Amino acid sequence: METKTQNAVTWHIACHINDIPEDGGGCALIDGKQIAIFNFARRGEWYATDNQCPHRQQMAVSRGMIGSHEGEPKVACPFHKKTFSLQSGQCLNDDSYKINTFPVMVKENLVYIGI
Amino acid sequence: MNTISNTHIVVIGNGMVGYKFCEKLLAKKKIGQQITLTVFGEEPRVAYDRVHLSEYFAGKTADDLTLASADWYADNGIRLFLSDPVVDIDREEKLVRSHHGHIVYYDYLIMATGSGAFVPSIPGVEKDGVFVYRTIEDLELIQSYARKARKGAVLGGGLLGLEAAKALLDLGLQEAHVVEFASRLMPRQIDDAGSRILQNQLESLGLQIHLAKSTQEIIGGDCIEGMQFNDNSILDVDMLVISAGIRPRDELAKIAGLETHPRGGIVVNNQLQTSDPSIFAIGECALAHHMIYGLIAPGYEMADVVATLLLGGEKEFLPYDMSTKLKLIGTDVASFGDPFIEEPACKTIRYENKAKGVYKRINVSPDGKTLLGGILVGDAEQYNMLLQTCKSRTILPPDSEDLILGSRGGEEAGAGVMSFPDDALICSCEAVTKGMICHEVSEKGNHTMDALKKSCKAGTGCGGCVPMVKDIISGVMKQNGIYVRNVVCEHFDYSRQELLDLVKMNGAKTYGAVLDEFGKGDGCEVCKPLVASLLASLWNENILQKDRAPIQDSNDRYLANIQKGGTYSVVPRIPGGEITPEKLIIIGQVAQQYGLYTKITGGQRIDLFGAHLNDLPDIWEQLINAGFESGHAYGKSLRTVKSCVGSTWCRFGVQDSVTFAIEVEDRYKGLRSPHKLKSAVSGCVRECAEAQSKDFGIIATEKGWNLYVCGNGGSKPQHAQLLATDVDKETCLKLIDRFLMFYIKTADPLTRTATWLNKMEGGMSYLKAVVVDDVLGIAAELEYDMQKLIDVYQCEWKEVVQNPELRKRFSHFVNAPVKDPSIAFETMRDQKRAKEWA
């Protein structure tokens, strides 16, 4: 679960937990924004980020492969394999890129995103 | 030397050597050493790679050739004045004055003024349409003049001249001539026999070569119309590039009263000091050891010597080895040591193969013990090895011809890189010796090329030494008893091959099972697709079922290639490139309905571009209903089997290549492997299907089929090699089964068959022994494993189309049934393409 404390986020229902494949990702349309949601089933953790990769502005981050680097959860953009920390949003192989991360809450099999 | 207070250094010249001096000085500077560095350059742009100037015509831009940006100078506190040559040196006051009036004080002055093109005093050289080939500005002038020219010539058959001639061809001139005064090309590097081979190669590219021609006059009015030679013949050309050698730029040194040589060049001692001890000269303007060193490596070495000296170190510039290896218009040309020494001062061994365009010559000492020099044309793979053997005076094996012919008795020729002495120079760009690399590997634990590049810069220059450095790494590790293995990533402490064996023996069929059993952590984008490929190669179950979908590389996950805009391309299989009109119409209709861009591929299929993720299942449903199958264009798997029409239609075809290509493609379709696989079948030796550039290629003979393997197109082309001759279809397929399965089981991830073979100990003879002669006794198992995969093949798209659960995954949003609204298209040549982001 996302631990970042946010002041005054609005929680949006994104989808049912089964809509996001285990140890995979999916994209939800929330308030006109494209949000990538990741289900770390092996860890029992959820993460959410921008769906747009800042490198070539493609809406494809949710289709990326997730994994970890020295324990830090990350996603690799399918376009050119820039990898981003799911905790900080920082690009791990190019300091000049960063994506936004969002808090995730799971309640009664529904996934909520805080924006 | 004075290093205590702030030292003012001025560099005149912003070419490659001038730049290298600055880089070396910054790198060597210790904390506390204060230096004020000022650089003056005559050209309007910052230092660029003049060695690769010709690539400017092959599409490289001035930016691509830049060695460092203007920002680099600013960031490092270097004052850089461009388009501003120094016009005066006041040695009394130690001041330089530039064209724009800048006056700068120096403690030390570095002359790196380089050289200019030598223009012989032939009547008529001043005419329009006569150029030199030296700077980017020269190239721009040539380029614009070439637009209206039809026939061009280059005066000078040296390295630069030949590159200039190729450039004329690239610029679209109808004729490109090379005129050389000597009786052979590249007279300073290669001998007559080598020159003849090179000449053949160049003529086959369309260059016309004229040797032993002395130019008397350039004829025409204001513009050049031709060249007249002293044998009274005339060559009709409308442009001419002069590349007749270089002339050191020593004018400024002369004005300043420094000692120069009557034939040009600023005279320097072993410290590269001119006749004024506070002024140094480096690069092609300097005359060291009575000669001008016209190569980049000695220029860099000179920069290093002076940088070292100015920072209080000790170093001398010693006579520099002028061995060279270059790729000239696609042909390797190399010479080393003393290439021209003649018998009886040596024993010369020559190998010449006109058909292949290869010439090799080595000069061995009369006692046969040491290598004195040599020449390689057409194939210079052994250059590094020979150069080191020559320089280190390594004792030669009894059959010294093995050095260029390779051993004909099974073992590899030469004593190998590990037999070199520790002071053998491996990376000449960065002056790294074998001893330094060994030390890095065994004492500091730098076991990878990347680690070595960081720790001692080996291999960071031209990169030519990288294969040797890698050999040293594994050599040292083997000596130290370390098992050399490539582990997959931080999550799996195994190599791909080890993991394959483990997965197979344990019958693991999901990624979760493999990770639980043999790995740790969450996996990553490296190990997930690797395991996905292993599972597919072992079991060939649908790649999207169980937990396998999210571990597929993005393309496999959606069974389509992700392209611009996050759209996908659709490539139905068209075995052998044969297709009915009915099927062509279906493809056209589907493309029209979904607004797809269509293109015929190089592999005889049809690409449909610009499909929305959401549309993929519907598109495929229609294609499958019309009898198409997945083309696996997205996978590391068998792509196409290209074919010519063979005996079906062609008047030369000796066998039915289309039928065979279809059979081959149907047999191996869907096969997952360490890298993508391509194949082709040609119906006769004319080879219209280009089978020899494929991972496995089949060429018809009068008696059957020849099988070639491990060819490669792409960025590092390599011809396939003959595995079997005149075999029947059944044997051919059997051998391919074994070959492919052996590759799948033993190749590292993302390694193509060509690279796999290059790294294989024993090379082609070993591969032949395993695949054809079955020396390991595994042929039956390899065939069995392949047959198992073939038996369980199913079209992945068919399964997805029929499975609502899987279909659901092809949706851009999990919570809205709409397509990605951010994708925009634009029109191009009556079709559409994804718009670039602003």
From TrEMBL, chain A:
GO biological process, any: nitrate assimilation
Keyword Transferase recorded: no
Organism superkingdom: Bacteria
UniProt keyword annotation of Cytoplasm present: no
Name by which UniProt lists this protein: Nitrite reductase small subunit NirD
Pfam families: Rieske_2 (PF13806)
Gene Ontology terms, MF aspect: 2 iron, 2 sulfur cluster binding; metal ion binding; nitrite reductase [NAD(P)H] activity
NCBIfam families xrefs: nirD_assim_sml
The Rieske domain, residue ranges: 12-113
Sorted UniProt keywords: 2Fe-2S, Iron, Iron-sulfur, Metal-binding, Nitrate assimilation, Oxidoreductase
Automatic annotation (TrEMBL), chain B:
Domain Nitrite/sulphite reductase 4Fe-4S: 635-760
Record: residues binding [4Fe-4S] cluster: 644, 650, 684, 688
Record note on cofactor: Binds 1 siroheme per subunit.
Cofactors: FAD; [2Fe-2S] cluster; siroheme; [4Fe-4S] cluster
InterPro entries found in the cross-reference section: BFD-like_2Fe2S-bd_dom, BFD-like_2Fe2S-bd_dom_sf, FAD/NAD-bd_sf, FAD/NAD-binding_dom, FAD/NAD-linked_Rdtase_dimer_sf, NasD-like, NiRdtase/SiRdtase_haem-b_fer, Nit/Sulf_reduc_fer-like_dom_sf
Keyword field contains 4Fe-4S: yes
Domain BFD-like [2Fe-2S]-binding: 425-473
Amino-acid positions noted as binding siroheme in the UniProt annotation, renumbered to this chain: 688
Sequence ranges assigned to domain FAD/NAD(P)-binding in this UniProt record: 8-290
Pfam families: Fer2_BFD, NIR_SIR, NIR_SIR_ferr, Pyr_redox_2, Rubredoxin_C
Family assignment from sequence similarity: Belongs to the nitrite and sulfite reductase 4Fe-4S domain family.
Entry protein name: Nitrite reductase large subunit NirB
Species of provenance: Dyadobacter fanqingshengii
Gene this protein is translated from: nirB
